[in-house]
Specification:
heterodimer, A: alpha/beta, Rossmann fold, 9 helices, 33% helix, B: 336 residues, mainly alpha, ABC transporter involved in vitamin B12 uptake, BtuC, globular, binds adenosine-5'-triphosphate, binds magnesium ion, transmembrane transporter activity (chain B), ABC_transptr_permease_BtuC (chain B), transmembrane (chain B)
């Protein structure tokens, strides 16, 4: 039984500029969904609405059928974890301090720290491979290590739904794979529902179950990678001509730009 | 983890000891220097018929306690302020309460003819409260998403400037006011009586725990508004609550002791290298260090010119200026 996140007629504008218009979507519980689309098409805005960080102008986001913007913030934060695209941390903070913050929604003023917190934080550090660096300062890390520290923070939140905005952007090829494999493992072992913004269509094809493509404030197409990654769709989403072939290892769609 | 926690506790314990020792030492000094043994006797075996004991009880003890509490409140408010505004150079004075307190003071001198330091405490508190309310309203505290830190500071600057302008207008109208005001505006703990302290203590007893609570609430905000919201923090509420705590701490201190600069600005920078980035620890450490520093400034003010006292506010500026330069020169960059 995992949580089910959907949205209905979601509209968002910043001031007078509309960014999302009447978006309807359904994150398949227990599966991984990629959100793709050109820069500035509203992917981050969509994820911020889904995570309750941003209130939509109209429409609503439903968690198991209940509107999340009406629910208790802490309750929602125990079910949905969100990693923003550009996360900032102050100087002097250690990896451990950051990951501990992920336990915030599970703590109360009177109960700050339990052995359960300890166990989950250690597990999260281990999952991203930062256990032995837990005491290093964030400002001393490389971009990729920093990204993994942030991922450990959301993992420590121990939620059923994970919303990640560009989790692989600063990573080298090997670490991109590591993160996406980790996400796949979490989904397989614990039945997590994951939605993440990815820019690399081939990675999305290889590591996700569903793809949602955004264009012009709305969902252009969505479905399994085989249905979304087609020559006409790539032309519509990015205005790029390409060929789609089956990749030699897994037979999944793979694009090659012309 | 374990190692860190215990070394932090040790640091806090050292800060506490330092403050208490300095406070005890401060009881020796004054117009009439008292021997340590007399001071000790006055504390453990108080004899009301002994004038020296009375001096310790009625004058020096309230003064030392006022310096501890006032300095601590400013230190803590500074740590909260820098975290709230995400600006390492923010001083709680930026929220305009000093201007409000100054206006309250000159009005009470001008209209009510107040002259003694202790007659100025409640007018200053009223002025500071008025300024704080205006700053909160203008800063957007009642908007659904809560105040925006930049807006709060702008509102603070505007309200502070307005109130200071009104203050100067009154000072120009009334020469007598200037004499009392000139003394008040230096800031210090000399004129504080036991009854002032007793009257203000309940208010401090509410606002210091509020400051501590604000430190716990603000701590997750260092990761940015989006992350904090995603972690279930009610960002708007936290900002309003913290601002109220900051203005309460500063308003009470400025009412008690006049404006004392630099503690709120410098102390958090002294504390952070020792205690790390956790605002909860930094706020507690800043309270303890601010308390110790204020007492130190008060002691030095009695030592620098023999036979005369320099107000702690002025001594603090003498200590604070150079230490700020040292901080800027030698510390590595801080981002909040
Ligand atoms: N806080 C904001 N205020 C005003 N406009 C905004 C704000 N955030 C985003 N926008 C605008 O909304 C649009 C969508 O932005 P969004 O960040 O959602 O795009 P994105 O798809 O995530 O882009 P990218 O791939 O570059 O991350 C952009 O045109 C952007 O300029
Ligand atoms: Mg984005």
């Amino acid at each position: 039984m995992t949580a089910h996140l959907t949205c209905e007629n979601l509209c968002l504008s910043y001031g007078k500029t509309p960014v999302l218009t009447d978006v309807n979507l359904d994150l398949v519980p227990g599966q991984i969904t990629a959100i793709v689309g050109p820069n500035g098409c509203g992917k981050s805005s969509l994820l911020r609405c889904l995570s309750r960080v941003q209130s939509p102008t109209k429409g609503q986001v439903l968690l198991d059928g209940e509107p999340i913007h009406k629910q208790n913030t802490k309750q929602v934060a125990r079910k949905i974890a969100f990693m923003p695209q550009s996360a900032t941390a102050p100087t002097g903070m250690r990896i451990m301090d950051l990951v501990l913050r992920g336990r915030t929604p599970h703590q109360s003023p009177l109960q700050q720290w339990t052995s359960e917190d300890q166990r989950i934080v250690e597990r999260a550090l281990d999952q991203v491979g930062l256990t032995h660096r837990a005491h290093e300062l964030l400002e001393d890390l490389s971009g990729g290590q920093l990204q993994r520290a942030w991922i450990a923070m959301v993992l420590a939140q121990d939620t059923e739904i994970l919303l990640l905005d560009e989790p692989t952007t600063f990573l080298d090829l090997a670490h991109q794979q590591d993160i996406l494999k980790l996400v796949r493992e979490l989904q397989a072992d614990r039945g997590l529902t994951v939605a993440m913004v990815l820019h690399d269509i081939n990675l999305a094809s290889r590591f996700t179950d569903n793809i949602i493509a955004l264009r012009d404030q709305n969902v252009l197409c969505s479905g399994v990678p085989q249905d979304v990654i087609t020559e006409p769709n790539i032309q519509d989403i990015y205005g790029l001509a390409c060929s789609v072939i089956a990749d030699p290892h897994h037979g999944l769609p793979h694009i090659i730009l012309k | 983890m374990k190692r860190n926690t215990s070394s932090h506790l040790a640091t806090l314990a050292i800060m506490t000891t330092l403050g208490l020792v300095l406070a005890f030492v401060s009881l020796w000094f004054g117009v009439r220097p008292l021997p340590t043994s007399t001071v000790w006797q006055a504390l453990v075996a108080f004899d009301p018929s002994n004038t020296e004991h009375m001096i310790v009880h009625e004058l020096r003890l309230p003064r030392a306690m006022a310096a501890l509490i006032g300095g601590g409140a400013l230190g803590m408010a500074g740590a909260l302020m820098q975290s709230l505004s995400r600006n390492p150079l923010a001083d709680p004075g930026l929220l305009g309460v000093n201007g409000g307190a100054a206006l309250g003071v000159v009005i009470s001198i001008w209209v009510l003819g107040a002259t003694a330091q202790s007659q100025l405490v409640f007018p200053a508190l009223a002025g500071a409260g008025l300024a704080a309310t205006l700053v909160l309203l203008l800063g957007g505290a009642v908007r659904p998403r809560g105040p925006d830190p930049t807006r709060l500071i702008l509102a603070g600057a505007a309200v502070g400037a307005l109130f200071l302008a009104l203050t100067w207008a009154i000072l120009i109208l009334s020469r007598e006011s200037l004499d009392t005001y000139r003394f008040w505006v230096l800031g210090g703990f000399t004129g504080i009586t036991k009854s002032d302290l007793v009257a203000l203590l309940p208010l401090f007893a509410v606002s210091l725990p509020m400051g501590l609570a604000a430190a716990f609430l603000l701590a997750p905000l260092i990761l940015g508004d989006d992350t904090a919201r995603a972690l279930g923090v009610r960002v708007g509420f936290v900002r309003v609550f913290s601002t109220v705590a900051i203005v309460a701490l500063c308003g009470l201190t400025v009412s008690m002791a006049g404006p004392i600069a630099f503690i709120g600005l410098v102390v958090p920078h002294l504390v952070r290298p020792l205690l790390g980035a956790d605002l909860r620890l930094v706020a507690i450490g800043s309270f303890l260090t601010g308390a110790a520093l204020a007492v130190l400034a008060d002691i030095l003010g009695r030592l620098i010119l023999p036979g005369q006292e320099i107000e702690a506010g002025a001594t603090m500026a003498l200590i604070g200026g150079p230490s700020l330069i040292l901080l800027v020169r030698f510390r590595r960059e801080v981002a909040l």
